[in-house]
Structure formats: structure tokens, C-alpha cells
Design goal:
The protein contains eight helices and two strands; from the N terminus they run H-H-E-E-H-H-H-H-H-H. The protein is mostly helical.
Amino acid sequence: MDTEIRILFSSIDKEVVQLFYRWQIFRQLFDSGEENLNLLNQSGSNVFALLQGLIIENGLLTLCRLTDPEHSGGYPNLSIRYFLGKIEATLSKEVREDFHGKLAKLESATESLRIHRNKRIAHLDLNHAVKPERLPSVEFGAFEDALELVRSIMREFYLLIWNADTDYRQPSIACGCDGNHLLRVLRGAHDRRGANKE
């Protein structure tokens, strides 16, 4: 693959790595059991509720950007569809069809996310703002299904570009900087506070 393709891929790869980085922290904090949720609520329920919502909305926006069309308003989008368009002439018919099939599934999986993006997150749809309508629910499982489809497509791209494999699910987080570390610090602070009261 030529240098331009590798630069494009590196740019989209950074977006996907950050998506999985944020989602890993989300899972560590908010999907790690009732005991941890209680600890977060005791430590700053409004702060952690805000953080939870922001990570979900950021993930939703990133998934929508990754599945945007090749162009919007005459300008190219760095999306999976755009990148595929740049490399598909070099692919066999079978590989092209496989990518297009997976991309169609991903676009279908992100359809309800796109409605949320367009009505209330990236845009403030006037009709929805003035008279809110019920938007399609975004199920946790469906969100993770979309992440898995992104991961599958990106792993295949990675193999084509770099002739190597990457997983995306376990992005590197510096020691002492992840959600698990924060939970340990909060638990220690609560334990010390409890001991001081005795």
C-alpha cells in the first residue's frame, strides 16, 4: 500500500483506538458490578453520572463518524466507507464483497445511533428540542455489537496495510491511569474514612 493509504489508515486507526480506550474505561467503571457502582455513587454520583453519559455520547458520535458516507456537503469524510473506496481497486472481488457485507451490517447496527446524533447530540433538531419525541432506544448489547463489527473490519484493514494483527479490545492504558486504579483509590479513601469514624 502506498504512503497516502497508510496515512489515511493511521488517522482512522487512531479514532478506533481512542473509541476502544474510552470504552474500556467505561466498562471498568460502570460495568464491573453493583459494588463498584455503589462506590462511584458514594464518591460523587453526579460527576460519575455525567462521565457515564459523556463516554456513551462520545462513543455514539465516533461510531457515527466512522460510518458516515464517503462525502458530506461535497467534502470527504474519513470514514470506513471512504477508506474502503480508496483501497477497493486493489482487492479481490471476494474480499471487496466481504468488506461491503460487513460495512452494511455496521451501518444497519448504527442506524438508531445516527438518529440520536442528528436529533439531540451533534445537532439540536428544532422540532425535537421544542417537542421531544421518543427516540429509538440504544441497547448496551447493540452498542457492543457495533463495536465488534468496527473491530472486525479494522483488523482486516490492519492486516492488509501492515501485514500484522491487532485486537483493539485491550488498548494500552498507562499503569495507574485506568478505571480499575480509580476504583482502588476510591475504595481506599472510603475504607480510611470508615476506619477514622470508629
